[in-house]
What does this fold into?
Amino acid sequence: MPDQSTTHIQTFLVDDHPAILEAIRNRIDDTLDVEVCGMATSSDEAFRKIEDMEPDTAVVDISLEDAHGLDLVQNLQSQCPEVQVVVYSMYDEMVYAERAIQAGASGYLMKDQPTEDLIEAIRVVDGGEVFLSREMPHRS
It folds into this structure.
């Protein structure tokens, strides 16, 4: 049985900007408890890889070249309900957070927030809770 103290939260990243993927991966690589297990730049590629890899969490951008990120969230919720999704987007949280949660995401964070907040969001949703920024009123 593996030592639980060395268990990493396996996280899959989805963004159509390779520079964003690299920056997030590099930041996550500096943590002890979160690990990037894969990355994709399109919804189709992400869905296939996430189905195969079965990560603990996925970080998904709303704006993808081949689909709307919330469609990917809905597909993941339907086909891979054990994967906890954090939507990480440039779009206003006050407008999109509720839509993301309704689509099946467990968290929403805007890209103008520090990457430490993204790592916190990954940890929170992996623990079974909903993550919204401190500015966003929490809803049940």
User: Anything to note?
Assistant: Confidence is low (pLDDT under 50) at residues 1-5. The two ends are 36 Å apart (CA to CA). The beta strands are 9-14, 34-40, 57-60, 84-89, 107-110. Residues 18-29 form the longest helix (12 residues).
